[in-house]
Amino acid sequence: xxxxxxxxxxxxxxxxxxxxxxxxxxxxxxxxxxxxxxxxxxxxxxxxxxxxxxxxxxxxxxxxxxxxxxxxxxxxxxxxxxxxxxxxxxxxxxxxxxxxxxxxxxxxxxxxxxxxxxxxxxxxxxxxxxxxxxxxxxxxxxxxxxxxxxxxxxxxxxxxxxxxxxxxxxxxxxxxxxxxxxxxxxxxxxxxxxxxxxxxxxxxxxxxxxxxxxxxxxxxxxxxxxxxxxxxxxxxxxxxxxxxxxxxxxxxxxxxxxxxxxxxxxxxxxxxxxxxxxxxxxxxxxxxxxxxxxxxxxxxxxxxxxxxxxxxxxxxxxxxxxxxxxxxxxxxxxxxxxxxxxxxxxxxxxxxxxxxxxxxxxxxxxxxxxxxxxxxxxxxxxxxxxxxxxxxxxxxxxxxxxxxxxxxxxxxxxxxxxxxxxxxxxxxxx
Length: 430
Known about the structure:
The chain is mainly α.
């Protein structure tokens, strides 16, 4: 009976349709890994980033941050289906160096047998959607505790279409930076630089919170923050490892480099605090971890384990210094340190990718005939372009929304807290 059933099963599967599209070939192992990675990246936002940010704000604003992360996830998902995916990852005709086309709006033409490489295109669309979700959610940390909910929602939606989607196309969708040969394995430019710059611009346009920098504004729940940080660390394996778009050695090396960078970043930040302030802080450890992760992201598939460790050390040290400069020297109230951690980390990692990817330095190698100096130059062009476009568009969006809706809650509303003022709810009932 077992032999008969086995013969029938083999015969039946032999006649099942094998999805084929051009030179693409379906691969079940790759698909399974990217399905898991998709879940991990979404897990980074919900609940990872939501808890990480929620614990860092004051008790009167915890629900507002959780709400923003959840609503951004829903809104971006619908926008990605409607326009974002098509504009980022299809050919835009004469405009293709700058933006994609409209051939796949609302997933037009994408069915169960449609392929993107070795993956069902629906899986690739969803995987990229999770990146689009977390990027504007990260910006929340720059204006936390003072932006109107309506303004936040409009800004996030417009920013996605006008900043994230074009830069995503430039780097990953066959745009002009891709043609130059830019190296951004998992989003140092597309995700971290854009969210960091936008957060910095938002912090400057909105102004500081009442009492900053003289009034202490410590995190209200470090247990929540550490829980969220742990989820981010685990989720980042899908973020970076999944960006290989295959279940192969590149994915494994990306995960290894990612883990070592997170470890090195956490310890570097901890020891700097320990030496400078006399005691290591839990907040410092988790922030250093995120700095290491942000720094390794663009390089994760191009460097070896030692490169990952080096980037973690550099990210922990340089991002720590950047937080001190932003808050204590420049007096900019980037509430949850988005620019000094993600923005600076993304810039540092993107530039160092051109160096540490070289085989002579333990990397996996540059393209044939490409020198380190040339690659660093390409990386610099990409960084400057992304910073300039993001800063300009973010500034114009914020100023326009301020004129139409008003960006900031009133002084009295800020004192009372956004949870009650905007949502008529409390995070805790003591």
